[in-house]
């Protein structure tokens, strides 16, 4: 499978897993969390938690900070803001959150609308 380069796709894919979603929920509730504390919320082993934390880091959801021999994770505020923009754009008449901002502005300035693709 081809690796995605679109940051919005990577952000959404990063959260699209039950274990990663549980990690994000714990970070939202607790703020900063040591990597060793995620095994309780996720009911998976430490190697699996490490894999999911790496995916969340690479997709932009979390930031890591090493303190001595421990690594602490926290939510990346920019990721939350972008997710809100994407989800908020799904409202009726909210415009397309999936088009790059420059393309959306250019289409609006030109008075053009993108065609709607209907499922077959």
What does the model show?
This protein has 120 residues and is mainly alpha-helical. The protein has a domain at 7-78: Winged helix-like DNA-binding domain superfamily/Winged helix DNA-binding domain (Arc Repressor Mutant, subunit A, Orthogonal Bundle), CATH 1.10.10.10. Helices cover 52% and strands 12% of the residues. It has six helices and three strands. Strands 1-3-2 form a three-stranded antiparallel β-sheet. A hairpin with a 2-residue loop joins strand 2 and strand 3.
Features of the shown structure:
single chain, 120 residues, mainly alpha, Arc Repressor Mutant, subunit A
Describe what is shown at a glance.
The protein is mainly alpha-helical and 120 residues long. It is built from six helices and three strands, in the order ααβααββαα. It has helices at 7-15, 18-30, 38-42, 46-59, 77-88, 101-110, and strands at residues 33-34, 62-67, 70-75.
Principal-axis shape: globular
Distance between the termini: 24 Å
Radius of gyration: 18 Å
Q: Main beta sheet, described?
A: 3 strands, antiparallel
CATH classification class of the domain at 7-78: Mainly Alpha
Number of DSSP E strands: 3
Alpha-beta classification = mainly alpha
Estimate the strand proportion. Answer: 5-15%
Topology:
Layout: H1 7-15, H2 18-30, E1 33-34, H3 38-42, H4 46-59, E2 62-67, E3 70-75, H5 77-88, H6 101-110
Antiparallel strand pairs: 1-3, 2-3
Helix pairs in contact: 1-4
